[in-house]
C-alpha cells in the first residue's frame, strides 16, 4: 500500500522498506504493519493532541520528568513551544516505558526506534505469524482464564516493582501471543511454545512513586483483569489482588517473588469521599468507553 505521509520519513531514512497494511486505528494512534529487511514489524503513528480521545491526560502526565529545563518552563507556561514539548514528551513516554519494562522482564513488545513521532516496534504475532488477537476477541476455558489472569497479575507486580503502573490496562490492550520456546502453559520444556499475554499501549503509563493517581490506576487495572477473566472463571470475581498488591508495595514488602492470596482485609481509616466519587466517575466512563468499543467492533 502507499505509505502514509508520517511514515515517508522512515522510508527515506532507511528504517523501514515498505508499508504492508494498516493494522488498527486507536484512540491515540494508528498502527501499520511494515517490512524492515527480512523482518515484519509495526509502526505506531501517534495522533496529535487535538485528534486524541484519550481521557484525563492530566492525571497521566502529572509529575512526568523533563530533562530540559527550558522545555519544562515552557510546558508550565503553556506556550506554543511548551505545548509542542508536552506532546513530544507524551509520545516518548511509551518508548521509555517499553525499554524500562522490557529490561525488567515484563512481556511487552520490543521497541526498535522512535523517529518523527513514530514508534517502530515488534509485531506481536500468533502461532501462524499473523497479528496476535486482543483478549477481548478470544474466549477462554475456566482453566485458561485462571492461568492468564495469574500471569497478568504477576506482570502487574513486575511492572510495579519496576516503578511503573500501566494506567489503562484492560482486555483491549493485551494481546494473546505465541511465545516460542517457552514450553506449555505449565512451563514444561520442549513443547516449542505457548499462548501468552503481551501488554501493549503504554503512553499513559505513570511513575508509581511520583504520581498521586498511581494507586487508583493500579486498582482499576487489576479490577479490569478480574472482571474480564471472571466472565470465564467466576471465582476470580471475589479476588482482591489490587488492594493486596498496593498494600504490599506501600509497605516495602512487594517483590516479583512475593506470594499473593487475592485476599485483602482493609484497615479502618477515614474514607476519602473525593477519591471514592472519582473512582465511581472513572468506572462509569470506562464502562461507557467499553460499550462503544464493543459496539464498534
Textual characterization of the structure:
Pfam families: RIO1. It catalyses: L-seryl-[protein] + ATP = O-phospho-L-seryl-[protein] + ADP + H(+); L-threonyl-[protein] + ATP = O-phospho-L-threonyl-[protein] + ADP + H(+). Its EC number is 2.7.11.1. Belongs to the protein kinase superfamily. RIO-type Ser/Thr kinase family. This is non-specific serine/threonine protein kinase. With 297 residues, the protein is an alpha+beta fold. It has one domain: Orthogonal Bundle (Transferase(Phosphotransferase), domain 1), CATH 1.10.510. The chain has helices at residues 5-12, 57-61, 69-77, 80-103, 142-161, 214-229, 241-250, 273-296; strands at residues 18-25, 29-36, 39-46, 111-115, 118-122, 164-165, 174-180, 193-199, 206-207. Strands 1-2-3-5-4 form a 5-stranded antiparallel β-sheet, sandwiched between helices. Helix 3 crosses helix 4 (80-103) and helix 6 (214-229) runs antiparallel to helix 7. The longest helix has 24 residues, at 80-103.
Amino acid at each position: 500500500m502507499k505509505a502514509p505521509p508520517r511514515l515517508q520519513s522512515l522510508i527515506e531514512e532507511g528504517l523501514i522498506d515498505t508499508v504492508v497494511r494498516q493494522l488498527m486505528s486507536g484512540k491515540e494512534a494508528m498502527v501499520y504493519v511494515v517490512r524492515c529487511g527480512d523482518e515484519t514489524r509495526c509502526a505506531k503513528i501517534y495522533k496529535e493532541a487535538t485528534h486524541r480521545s484519550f481521557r484525563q491526560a492530566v492525571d497521566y502526565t502529572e509529575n512526568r520528568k523533563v530533562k530540559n529545563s527550558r522545555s519544562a518552563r515552557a510546558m508550565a507556561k503553556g506556550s506554543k513551544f511548551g505545548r509542542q514539548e508536552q506532546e513530544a514528551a507524551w509520545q516518548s513516554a511509551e518508548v521509555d516505558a517499553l525499554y524500562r519494562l522490557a529490561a525488567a522482564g515484563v512481556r511487552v513488545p520490543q521497541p526498535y526506534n522512535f523517529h518523527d513521532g513514530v514508534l517502530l516496534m515488534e509485531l506481536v504475532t500468533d502461532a501462524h505469524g499473523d497479528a496476535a488477537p486482543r483478549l477481548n476477541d478470544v474466549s477462554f476455558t475456566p482453566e485458561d482464564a485462571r492461568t492468564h489472569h495469574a500471569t497478568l497479575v504477576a506482570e502487574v507486580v513486575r511492572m510495579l516493582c519496576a516503578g511503573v503502573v500501566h494506567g489503562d490496562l484492560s482486555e483491549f490492550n493485551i494481546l494473546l501471543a505465541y511465545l516460542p520456546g517457552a514450553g506449555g502453559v505449565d512451563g514444561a520444556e520442549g513443547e516449542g511454545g505457548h499462548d501468552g499475554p503481551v501488554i501493549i499501549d503504554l503512553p499513559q503509563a505513570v511513575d508509581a512513586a511520583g504520581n498521586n493517581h498511581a494507586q487508583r490506576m493500579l486498582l482499576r487495572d487489576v479490577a479490569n483483569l478480574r472482571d474480564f477473566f471472571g466472565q470465564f472463571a467466576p471465582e476470580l470475581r471475589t479476588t482482591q489482588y489490587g488492594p493486596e498488591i498496593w498494600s504490599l508495595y506501600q509497605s516495602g514488602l512487594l517483590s516479583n517473588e512475593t506470594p499473593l492470596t487475592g485476599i485483602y482485609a482493609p484497615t479502618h481509616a477515614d474514607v476519602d469521599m473525593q477519591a471514592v466519587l472519582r473512582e465511581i466517575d472513572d468506572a462509569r466512563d470506562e464502562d461507557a468507553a467499553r460499550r462503544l468499543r464493543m459496539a464498534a467492533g
